[in-house]
Amino acid sequence: MLYNILCPCDNADNEMKKEPFINLKGYVLGNPLTYYGEGNYRIPFAHGMGLISDELYESLMTKCNGDYLTPNQSNTFCLQDVETFKEVEFYLH
Q1: For residue 75, what is the DSSP state?
Q2: Main-chain phi, psi angles of 32, to 5 degrees
């Protein structure tokens, strides 16, 4: 059972109504979003996993200065690169 590997608790405790109850689904999922700015790590992660080219990664790093979630709207080069990344990311899902 997956829970036995991930959770050092016994599911029988929940079934026997012992308190405190443990929400095993929440324990397994964790918190998928810890803070707002973590979306900026999607591009370095994609590059590290080989999902985007070195050229696109370096262009994003140079033109966007690490801010991919809220790029400066007057920086058209950054906006183009972010849009290219979004197109690539769409095909990865």
Answers
A1: -
A2: -70, -20
- Do 41 and 83 lie in a common domain? yes
Q: Tell me: the pLDDT tens digits for 13-40?
A: 556 666 665 555 554 445 555 667 777 8
Number of domains the chain is built from? 2
Statement: residue 85 has pLDDT above 60: yes
Distance (Å, rounded) from C-alpha 76 to C-alpha 86?
Answer: 15
pLDDT of residue 10: 55
Query: Angle at Cα 63 formed by Cα 61 and Cα 64, nearest 5°?
Result: 70
Structure tokens at 22: 């443990």
